[in-house]
Amino acid sequence: MLRNGLAWIVAGAICISPAWADTAKTEGGLEIISSDGRFSAALGGRIHFDTYLFNDDIDDTVSTTEFRRTRITLSGKVYNWKYKLEQDFASGDTRDGFRDVYLAYDFWGGSISIGQFKPYRSMEELTSSNNITMLERPFTSATGIFDRRQFQQGIGWRNHWDCYTAGIVAFNLRNAGELRNEGVGAAGRFTWAPVDVALETIHLGVSYSYEDAGRQSPPLEADAPYAGRRGPRQLMALTPGDRIFFFGDFGDEEFFLGDAGGRVNVGGLELAATRGPLYAQAEYTYGNYDGDFFLSEQSFEDFFGAPPTFGCDPEFGCFIGDQTVRAWYVMGSWIITGEHKPYDARKGVFKTAKPNSAWGAWELTARYEKISNDDIPDLEADSIILGVNFYANSRVRFMFNLRFGHDDFTDNGTDQLGVRAQVNW
Prior knowledge:
mainly beta, 3-stranded antiparallel sheet, 6% helix
């Protein structure tokens, strides 16, 4: 039904009668604007098609292809209100595929958004997937310390003035495709660009995130897909959600018991800079995951992929207290054809370069990232990524990533070659 509804919306926007609209723009996309300027509808989208080839160590990983993203976006305004409806068919044709779905209104110099969108935390998380430097985001994002908590439902305000940005958001711990729950959260981000001229930018940022699992909330996790998408993953930290996720009794071969709920607090720092064709970016996050739960040794191994590296009680199993998680990365690139990555001062993120010639642009990339749990011995993972990006034009990009991943906890060293063909409009 959602697919049919979206089709009718798009068709209605395109086939709108002349009495309501008399202006159609087609530069870089399709946009229709009413004659009085009070209504508009713009159609956009993206296709990211990936190929993954693995060099296995312990895990028997399947090399494969997939549509990483296939999104259709409808955005515009109704009187003084803006809206955005984005469906990712690679994730499902129902609410599972909802991405940005919200209303927005200009308020107090900035904009208030109501609906589903990304909380304001992590520079790379807030960078569009059309503009990220590597195939996947680093461990400081929802691809790590905020595992599976990328889009949330709530209300947020964001503003930009001079060389600063600020944003705050309050949200429910769910997206449209997840179980209704009483978990809540809040996040805020502040950035400063002390230097922002034509070919040089310096960016500084700080963020804070608070999440509190409530009734029917799933467990809050930090995770490490250290060998890339569709490769092996390592659970890095766990905060229990609702008690409906507990199982077993003390003394059983398998059990997961303790206090329901729990909080996650994460602070982050950002540093990035460009100078001509050179670009560098780094983030550091420090998080605390509430614990106070017990796992049998078998359940611990099922959850974390290896036997516990500390002593466990024969009756009460392995006690997991509060867990400190650190994640960080350093990343850089060189556009060897001379182009420059522009800075989006309104959002406090960088965008991809646009080729200067019909021959396209070439970019060499590299990233090192690491995530660790300070309270479970040897629980850490890292990866090194070397890459090449080719920009055929401002809308078409091809990406090649060679990733060397290692999980200290399981001593697994799976590597991945990832390739992406990408178009957006």
